Amino acid sequence: xxxxxxxxxxxxxxxDEAAFREARRVFGAALGGFRRxxxxxxxxxxxxxxxxxxxxxxxxxxxxxxxALADFARTRDDCAGRQWDYVSSPPVCAxxxxxxxxxxPTPWGE
Length: 110
Description:
Strand content: 15-25%
Number of strands: 5
Radius of gyration: 18 Å
Distance between the termini: 47 Å
Shape: elongated
Helix content: 25-40%
């Protein structure tokens, strides 16, 4: 039987409420750290965000720095020699929920 996220959360509360609260706190801290970090998102051939479907969910590829994005680009045999355009976004402002994305080409495309 497959459980939804709500069902998993309910089971955790029924089983161990303290563990559920701690897991939620840890997740919130990780999410907060991500929101305060700049990320680089490569663009696909149509200029959209580079995404991949996995497990029935569409995931956006986001990288913490150019080195991580370069490592990813080098593993893509189907994209050898292409220039990797990406958008970069500064941390999201907690008050407004906005950042200021910018678009830049990669210095490595070989």
